C-alpha cells in the first residue's frame, strides 16, 4: 500500500490517510510518499510499518545512533534538527486546536539546542536476563544498548554492561552541574552493592514496595540550576535537560517580571526548580506538589536558596 504522509502526530509517528482513515507510520516524514505494510487496523485509524520511501523528504537524514531502527527511545533522529523543531511547533499548535478548542493559536518557534546530543541527565533502562537497554517500539522486548547518543557523558560513563538477572529496570541519573550520580535499581529480590558493576561514586538505591533501600551513599543527588543548588531524590521529578531547563526558567522569569512583594504560586512545583530561581530576593512563593519525596526536596532547597 502507498500512503502520502501529511503531518506528524504527538509521539513521533507520521500520519497519512488511506481510504479516509488515518494511518500512523513510524519513521516517516510529512511530505513523503511511502510504501507501507498494515500492522493493525483499529477501525477509525490504522498503524503501518514503513517498507520503502518512494519520495524522500529533503529533511531526511541518516540517524547517528546505531540502535535507532530497533530502539524505542528516540523517534525523530531520521529528521533534520531544524525540521524537528518546526514539526514540534506544529504538534503543539494542532493539540491546541483539536483538544483545546482554540482557533488559530499563535505558537512561537521552538527554541532548540545548539547540539541536541549528550544532554539527558536521566535515562530509564529495562533489563532482561542481565542485558540492559531500551524496549523495542510497540513491544516489551529489550534491545541491548551499550551507549546512548542523547545521554549525558556522566551517565554514559557508568552504563553497566550487564546486571543481575533479577534486575528488571535501571534508572541512571546525573547532576550535570555537580557531577553527582545515582542509580535506582528495580529487582525481584534484595541486591547487594557488589551485585552491580557501577563506579564507586554512584549512589545506589533499590525500591522495595513503597520504601527505598539505600545500598550506597544517599538516596538523592544535587543539581545546579541558574546558580541554585537543588537536592533531587531518587524518584523525584526533574527536567531531563538541564541546559534547556535553565533556558525555560529564564524565559518564565522574563515573562513574569516579578516585583518585590509579589508572591508566586507554582503548581506541580516538583523540587522547586522553577519557583526558587524565579523568586526575587526575599520573595515568597507557594508550591503545590503530590510527590512526598519532591516536597521534602523542595523544602530543603528552599532553605538552601
DSSP strand content: 25-35%
Characterize the largest beta sheet: strand count, sense, and whether it forms a barrel.
Answer: 7 strands, mixed
Number of domain modules: 3
Report the CATH architecture of the largest domain: Beta Barrel
The CATH class of the largest domain = Mainly Beta
Multimeric state = single chain
Number of strands: 16
Q: Structural class of the helices, strands and pairings?
A: alpha+beta
Do you know the CATH topology of the largest domain?
A: OB fold (Dihydrolipoamide Acetyltransferase, E2P)
Helix content: 10-25%
The first-to-last residue Cα distance is 59 Å
Secondary-structure topology with pairs:
Layout: E1 2-8, E2 14-18, E3 21-25, E4 33-41, E5 45-55, H1 81-98, E6 122-128, E7 131-135, E8 142-144, H2 153-156, E9 167-174, E10 181-187, E11 203-208, E12 211-216, E13 220-225, E14 228-233, H3 242-256, E15 263-267, H4 275-278, E16 284-288, H5 292-304
Parallel strand pairs: 3-5, 10-11, 15-16
Antiparallel strand pairs: 1-2, 1-4, 2-3, 4-5, 6-7, 6-9, 7-8, 9-10, 11-12, 13-14
Amino acid at each position: 500500500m502507498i500512503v502520502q504522509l501529511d503531518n506528524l502526530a504527538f509521539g513521533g509517528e507520521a500520519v497519512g490517510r488511506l481510504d479516509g482513515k488515518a494511518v500512523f507510520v513510524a519513521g516517516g516524514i510529512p511530505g513523503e510518499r511511502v510504501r507501507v505494510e498494515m500492522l493493525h487496523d483499529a477501525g477509525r485509524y490504522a498503524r503501518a510499518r514503513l517498507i520503502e520511501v518512494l519520495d524522500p523528504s529533503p529533511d531526511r537524514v541518516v540517524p547517528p545512533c546505531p540502535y535507532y531502527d530497533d530502539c524505542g527511545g528516540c523517534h525523530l533522529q531520521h529528521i533534520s534538527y531544524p525540521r524537528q523543531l518546526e514539526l514540534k511547533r506544529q504538534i503543539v499548535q494542532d493539540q491546541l486546536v483539536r483538544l483545546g478548542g482554540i482557533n488559530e493559536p499563535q505558537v512561537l518557534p521552538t527554541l532548540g539546542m545548539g547540539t541536541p546530543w549528550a544532554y539527558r541527565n536521566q535515562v530509564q533502562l529495562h533489563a532482561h536476563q542481565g542485558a540492559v537497554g531500551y524496549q523495542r517500539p510497540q513491544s516489551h522486548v529489550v534491545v541491548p544498548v551499550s551507549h546512548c547518543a542523547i545521554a549525558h557523558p556522566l551517565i554514559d560513563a557508568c552504563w553497566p554492561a550487564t546486571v543481575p538477572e533479577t534486575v528488571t529496570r535501571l534508572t541512571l541519573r546525573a547532576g550535570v552541574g555537580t557531577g553527582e550520580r545515582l542509580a535506582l535499581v528495580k529487582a525481584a529480590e534484595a541486591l547487594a552493592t557488589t551485585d552491580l558493576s557501577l563506579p564507586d561514586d554512584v549512589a545506589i538505591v533499590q525500591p522495595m514496595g513503597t520504601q527505598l533501600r539505600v545500598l550506597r551513599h544517599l538516596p538523592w543527588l544535587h543539581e545546579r540550576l541558574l546558580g541554585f543548588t537543588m537536592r533531587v531524590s531518587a524518584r523525584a521529578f526533574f527536567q531531563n535537560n538541564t541546559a534547556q531547563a535553565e533556558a525555560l526558567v529564564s524565559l518564565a522569569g522574563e515573562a513574569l517580571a516579578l516585583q518585590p512583594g509579589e508572591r508566586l504560586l507554582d503548581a506541580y512545583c516538583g523540587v522547586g526548580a522553577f519557583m526558587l530561581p524565579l523568586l526575587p530576593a526575599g520573595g515568597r512563593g507557594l508550591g503545590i506538589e503530590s510527590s512526598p519525596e519532591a516536597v521534602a526536596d523542595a523544602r530543603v532547597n528552599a532553605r538552601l536558596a
